[in-house]
Fold this sequence. Notes:
It is elongated and about 85 Å long. The chain has 17 helices and seven strands. Helix 3 runs antiparallel to helix 5 (91-113). It has three domains: 2-125; 147-349, P-loop containing nucleotide triphosphate hydrolases (Rossmann fold, 3-Layer(aba) Sandwich); 353-408, no CATH class. Helix content is 59%, strand content 10%. The longest helix has 31 residues, at 116-146. It is α/β, with parallel strands linked by helices. The strands form two sheets. It has a five-stranded parallel beta sheet, with helices on both faces. Keywords: Repeat.
Amino acid sequence: MGPVAELLGTIINSYKEFKDVGEKRDLLAQRITDLTGDICATVLRMQETNYSDQIGRLLPDLEKYAQLITRASRFIKEYDDQGPITHFAGRNQMQDEMDKLQQDLDLFIVRFGNNRLVDLCINQSMGAKTLQEVHDMAVAEKLAKWLKSPPEMTEKQHNTEQSRSQGTGQWFLEDKQFIEWEDNPGVLWIEGPSGAGKSVLSSTVIDNLFKQRAQTTPRSLGVAFFYFDFRTKETQSPEIALRRLILQLSAEAPHPHKTLDEHYNLSDGQKLPNYQDLVSLLLRLLKQLKRTYIVLDALDECDSTNFQQLVGLVAKLRAWAETPLHLFITSQTRPIFTENFEDINHIELHSEIMDQDINIFVTKELQTKDDLIVWQANADMVIEKNHSKKQWNVSLSCMSSYRTILLLMGRG
């Protein structure tokens, strides 16, 4: 490894010098950039796939490339040191040298590409990756089954997203309190009456977080969520919520499923983790992630006999300070939440806040559905049609029809 490391250092240093030259050599520079990256990646793959002891067999190829890149670097320096007149007088010779460098690079690429050791390493690396993916899937399925297959949240998230009209909820993502929560660890509580659109806002937040995660370094940001739902008994327990959160974060940890699988192996899957075990597992996973976002929607739809346990879970997560944790919760007003969440940052939803979303929804419905019947007898809504622009303008003169609108929007 010593000679190879030294050669790689020479190659990288020469490459850095070459990279600093001007635009005249861009094409050649780009080619050397790509090839240098391929060489370094190949050596790394050989290390990762237990071929380190055979890296020395690449020495002849690496020595050849080191000579090539040094030659190219010297040529560029000489070219840059010459003035425009010298460039013009010696243009044929310079072009010949440039062509010769390109030809030698072509020969090297063919030789390096035909190296059976390189080919074996790349194929082995791809095979190892595929095997790891299959292994991860099998472990994930085993753990989900072990935890009694807690309700899958992706379908609930999808259905809630589908009920949201395009453009609604944007005001919330631009709200100052939400932006502060997004940037700084802590808890944000959304409180509002039934049908105020809390679950739709949760789905908007979750969708936004996943888009952000896609733009970050892999496995540096975790996102987990749970929808409590009074219509489904399996989604009314804090313990079930914990199982779901753990399964989600376990898949996103730097070593997927390792922590949870270790707990599984303690009893060979014969014993389910109790509530305190689940809390400990969740905290262990939080330690492994650089930043975590957790969304718990509709706390009030949890079984009321479990409210105290749920409040305790929120308190436990709220106190977490070892790694950045952002907790987003929604609920209707309940005395137990009011008492325990009184000093938590929170946004209270009311009709005026939702006016913009209602306006967007109704306008869209009227523009796209010619057969929509609008009742105006109670004068709750004032709807005007601009025939020249073929648009509807919607305003709400009072909110007695608020509940009806929300039902139309799928938010009831």
